[in-house]
Amino acid sequence: MTRRPLRPLARILDARARGENPDAIERENLRLRAEAARAQAHARAEGRLLVLAATFFLAFGILGARMGMEAASAPAEPTVAARPAADGISANRADIVDRQGRLLATNMLTHSLYAQPQQMIDPARAARELARIFPDLEEERLHARFTAPGRRFLWVKRRLSPEQIQQVHDIGEPGLLFGPREMRLYPNGRMAAHVLGGAGFGREDVRAAEVIGVAGVERVFDEVLRDPANGGKPLRLSIDLSLQAAITEVLEGGVRLLDAKGAAAVLMHAHSGEILALVSLPDFDPNHRPNPLVEGDPADSPLFNRAVQGVYELGSVLKAFPVAQAIDRGLVHPQSVIDTRGPLRWGRFRITDFRPRGPEQTVADIFIHSSNIGTARIAQKMGVEAQRDFLGQLGLLEPLPVELTEAPNARPLFPRDNWSELSMLTISYGHGLSVSPLHLAAAYATLVNGGTRVEPTLLRRPRSEPGARILRPETSDAMRAMMRETVARGTATMANVAGYQVGGKTGTADKPRRSGGGYYSGRVIASFVGAFPMSDPEYVLAVALDEPVETSGVEARRTAGWTAVPVAGEIVRRIAPLLGMRPEIAAGTADGITRVRN
């Protein structure tokens, strides 16, 4: 390294020759060196600040670009990364979403708790602490299992919450171990419980567990949901979560107000058969699916799907079918006059009307005011075989091919070997044939959509082909007009929601006894099936209440007009705006204008 002296000899000698002070040369050199050092330090600081500024700029640029990409991308629900299979056990299961892509079922990573008693230090303390953490476990039973001779492994709990995991950790027992696994999670709780069904564990070991469907669409589409070839693509249902929630809330209110034993409701697209909502009450939380009943009436279990499994004699709602068939075959038209004098006798049996309305009525009035005698006389014009064939074409004599585990066992009840003339008469007005509310909704969709058969589905169908033609379009037009009149001035006026042109038919049927034959006194199934808007029906709504009673008046009232109909009307009032339907307001006339100011 070359050093420069602070007092160079040549300059000192020259300064002495001129009589100057040589010390000034040293001070000048020190000043110049100090200035050079400051300049170098300043330049170094500027460089460091520039590098730091560039680093921050680059980091914030990357962060902003990433945020922009996330904002521009399509929203997606977070999913749990699939873990490798353990001993051939795959825990991967696809999500289930509604028609709008909202989450109905997904997976959540959790842990199971198992014990290896040979590694336990204090089994008594472990049993005591576990019983404190899990109230459903018994301390004595746990301790006996932990200390059983030869016991090397036992399950303690299949699913744990994060809080429970921490509490078990705090016990500090080396013989208590955790196994990772995925559990099925239903984030909406009870909503659409009977549609989803539920899931449980199949094959399992300490490292993984197989999630399998046990009921509902979870079981029907079990292989599809577990198939790795689908890449985790969610199963999209036709159910709309908003409609499901609104109908559930209204139906629960109706059950409480009317002290009903249970209820069911189905909302279906009239052309595609897509089920937009399916509610059965009482229901359950599929996150904690209850055990089936081992004794008593299965219909008392919250697992029982009243909309699909429940087959009931539904009363006058079935009157639409003989009327539609007779009109379609040209035997009558809406203004045809029918003899309705009563009672109508067949052998020792008598058929009467709930409210007689005279010796003669038109077909339209028979339908609108629900005459049993008139409907039976219309059925007589067609005969037994024609009635049976027509009901079969509507799908009312066989299980529906809807994607639910329970559907194949929901077989309509009817006289299979002895469909007599008496059976024809009673079935015409709703007794002797038991079907589910879902059967009824599908059959009414055929009546109002122009006459093509509809098969209900729980899968989203962007496009759907029309089914087989059952009725002429003109017959469907006539049925829609009579259904509209039934709500406007007949037995279902409480379903007349202003602006939405609701049409439908009521039904009140006595409940048959479980044994011994005959019917209960004062126990009914009240139902209403409607469609809207009747000018061009898009949606069909079926509502059924089990043993409702309306007690606001002097006498208890159980008929559908006082029970099922107002519930259905409130449902339409709630869901029509959710369906994007704007109320139709009739234009005013000059005579209806009141001048309030000159």
Helices and strands in order:
Blueprint: H1 9-17, H2 23-72, E1 96-97, E2 103-115, H3 123-133, H4 139-146, E3 154-160, H5 162-171, E4 176-185, H6 193-196, E5 198-204, E6 209-215, H7 216-220, H8 222-226, E7 235-236, H9 241-257, E8 262-269, E9 275-281, E10 312-313, H10 320-328, E11 337-339, E12 344-346, E13 349-351, E14 360-362, H11 363-368, H12 372-380, H13 384-393, H14 421-428, E15 434-435, H15 437-448, H16 473-489, E16 503-512, E17 519-532, E18 539-546, H17 564-578
Helix pairs in contact: 3-4, 3-5, 9-17, 10-16, 12-14
Mean pLDDT: 87
Point out poorly predicted stretches: 79-85, 587-598
Largest sheet: 5 strands, mixed
The gyration radius over C-alpha positions equals: 38 Å
Just give the CATH class of the largest domain: Alpha Beta
Percent helix, as a range, is 25-40%
CATH architecture field of the largest domain: 3-Layer(aba) Sandwich
The CATH topology assignment of the largest domain is Beta-lactamase
CATH superfamily of the largest domain: DD-peptidase/beta-lactamase superfamily
User: What would you call the quaternary organization?
Assistant: single chain
- How many beta strands in the DSSP annotation? 18
Shape: elongated
Instruction: Please indicate the percent range of residues in DSSP E strands (runs of 2 or more).
Output: 15-25%
- How far apart are the first and last residues' alpha carbons, in Å? 109 Å
Secondary structure class reads alpha+beta
Please report the number of helical segments: 17
